[in-house]
Automatic annotation (TrEMBL):
Membrane topology term: Peripheral membrane protein
Protein name: Phosphonate ABC transporter ATP-binding protein
SMART domains linked: AAA
PANTHER family per the UniProt record, alphabetical: AMINO ACID IMPORT ATP-BINDING PROTEIN, PHOSPHONATES IMPORT ATP-BINDING PROTEIN PHNC
Record gene name: phnC
Organism, as annotated: Vreelandella rituensis
């Protein structure tokens, strides 16, 4: 369904973030992207929906060559790819329901969305999704009145209301406690199975990747150094991906320290309505 071929990314600073990436994601498969800090995981995820421009290579979603698109065609193609962020990227002063409906922005147009005049079928779908993610009791709550886990559930519902084929997920559990992290990963897994969605998840927590992904791709210095099943992740392979470490001791407390957000307040990574709201309040929280 999604095929990356020979994808490279060199930033204007000269940093070579990705080299010759070859990757094919079938429908319904959950792929965990692991690797040390700076390996290129976020860059790879953002190249897929062109938030970051690949320097060369091909990225195809079904029959569409994404790297050739611009303007309206690119916006249309992006509807098929929904993003879920580490810091949720919600508009705090809007309600849970309004945040979810903002996921329809690419379909209904900016002004209709800004004026909150969504078609009835979108509202019905948003209700259904909020019930599915366990938030039907909190529709009218402001986003800033929610816990981290609840905020991520809103982020998931907002992604799904977009009716995507593919989920691009950037460190979904990095700000959450271990139990909530597992609940969120389980929910993502169930929803992907229900909708036959492909997902690619940038995740630092190897234990979660092992438990919830169908496939693990290991990146190191911008190159794929492992592509296989979660149960193939031996100490030797972890060393190939991350470098030398005592992995057997590490297994007793596998949770890495949360890494800091790069997405929360960057207007380029927000939906236009979020960015507008952020500009009007001077904040994204
Ligand atoms: N906007 C940018 N401008 C210049 N270089 C960048 C930019 N973003 C990332 N890089 C560089 O590209 C490389 C890959 O970074 P990237 O953020 O994709 O890695 P990552 O695996 O997601 O890291 P982390 O796990 O710490 O989030 C790094 O060398 C980084 O310094």
């Amino acid at each position: 369904m999604l095929t990356l071929s020979g994808v490279c990314k060199r930033y204007p600073t000269g940093d070579r973030a990705l080299s010759d990436i070859e990757l094919s994601l079938p429908r319904g498969q959950i792929t965990a992207l692991i690797g040390p800090s700076g390996a290129g995981k976020s860059t790879l995820i953002r190249c897929i929906n062109r938030l970051v421009e690949p320097t060369s290579g091909s990225i195809r979603l079904d029959d569409t060559e994404l790297t050739r698109l611009s303007g309206r065609e690119l916006r249309r193609a992006r509807r098929a790819m929904a993003m879920i962020f580490q810091e949720y990227a919600l508009v705090d002063r809007l309600s849970v329901m309004e945040n979810v409906l903002s996921g329809r922005l690419g379909h209904v147009g900016f002004w209709r969305s800004f004026l909150r005049r969504y078609p009835a079928k979108d509202v019905t779908e948003a209700f259904r999704l909020l019930e599915r993610v366990g938030l039907s009791h909190a529709l009218d709550k402001r986003a800033d009145a929610l816990s981290g886990g609840q905020r991520q559930r809103v982020g998931i519902a907002r992604a799904l209301v977009q009716s995507p084929q593919l989920l691009l997920i950037d460190e979904p559990t990095a700000s959450l406690d271990p139990k909530t992290s597992r609940q969120i990963m389980r929910l993502i897994r169930e929803l992907c199975a229900e909708r036959r969605l492909a997902a690619i998840i940038n995740i630092h927590d190897v234990a979660l990747a092992r438990q919830f992904a169908d496939r693990v791709v290991g990146l190191r210095a911008g190159r794929i150094v492992f592509d296989g099943k979660p149960d193939e992740l031996s100490a030797e392979i972890l060393t190939t991906i991350y470098g030398e470490e005592d992995w057997d001791t590490q297994a007793d407390h596998e949770r890495d320290a949360p890494s800091k957000s790069k997405t929360q307040s960057h207007p380029a990574l927000m939906s236009p309505i979020s960015a507008l709201a952020a500009l009007s309040t001077g904040s994204t929280r």
